[in-house]
Each structure stands twice: as structure tokens, then as C-alpha cells.
Amino acid sequence: MTENDEKMVENFIALLYDRSSQSFTVDSTRKKLFCQKNSAFENLPPTSAALKYHIKRAVFQASIVWGQSLTNIPSFHAPEQWGWEKNEKGEFDIFWPHLSAISKSCAELCKCSCKKPCSGKCACKQSSLPCTSSQDVDALV
Predict the structure, then answer these.
(1) What is the per-residue pLDDT across 74-129, written as a single tens digit (0 to 9) for each?
(2) How far, in Å, CA of 45 to CA of 29, rounded?
(3) Is 0.70 topped by the overall pTM?
(4) What does the pLDDT look like over 17-40, one tens digit per residue?
(5) Is the dihedral of CA 38, 39, 45, 49 positive or negative?
């Protein structure tokens, strides 16, 4: 897969998450959705690093694994080059880029949009933070 192909896929994924987006990268789309549209962490697109490895795994499965599904003795390239890593047992696991989870590093930026007192579904309650709903904040003032 060429670098141009990766950019087209990244642009497509960015548009899946925000169809009005003018950005061409998932990282800028993540930033816009988080900062301007207050999207929940789990609704953000993957980082560009995570997307790159996901694309590699998808290409590996589609072209190399399924492409040889009718071959008597298939020959597989090293999975490590396709977004996999060997664990201590010698089995292959998904390689995850070593970036801290946004939910851990940005939990203090979490705010809820409850109009009524918070319930268990509130973003603040799920993040174990004090509630920031307008009603609760007004009660403190």
C-alpha cells in the first residue's frame, strides 16, 4: 500500500467521523471533534498511528491470508511487518502504538451536558469526576 493510498484511507475515515470536516487527517478530526463538538472519547476516530497499523492488519488479512485461502501450502510474510507483535508465548497479538489513552490523559477535560442532576450515564460520573452540569454548578454559586 502506497503512502498516497494511506492518505486516501485516512481522509475517508476522517469523513466517516465528521462528514462536514475540511481536514484530511484523523488527528485533526479528533482534535476538532473533541474541542469544538465535545464528542465523547469513545466516539473519536483512532489516532493516525493506530489507523496505520489497523490498515496494515486489514491488508494482511485480505490480501495475504484470504488471498491464499485456496492454496494447499500458503506462505505468509512476517506478521510483524503487518501490525502484529509476538508475545512471550510466541503467539501474535495486535500491535498497539504506545500512546496514552485519551480517557486517562484528558479525563479532567470531561464535562457533562446534563440539564438535570447527573445520573449514572453522565460523563462526569463515568470518569469519577465532580459533575459540571449547569444545574449542579449553579447550586455551588
Answers:
(1) 887 788 888 888 899 988 888 877 665 555 555 555 556 666 666 666 666 666 66
(2) 8
(3) no
(4) 998 878 889 999 988 888 777 777
(5) positive
Q: Is the dihedral of CA 82, 84, 85, 87 positive or negative?
A: negative
Q: Specify the length of the chain in residues.
A: 141
User: For 7-22, b where at least 16 C-beta lie within 10 A, e where not — what string?
Assistant: eebbbebbeebbeebe
Domain boundaries, the chain: 3-105, 110-141
> In angstroms, what CA-CA distances link 58 with 15, 87, 97, 102?
19, 20, 16, 24
CA–CA distances in Å: residue 56 to residues 2, 52, 86, 101: 11, 6, 16, 21
C-alpha grid cell for residue 33? 471533534
How many whole angstroms separate alpha carbon 127 and alpha carbon 90? Answer: 36
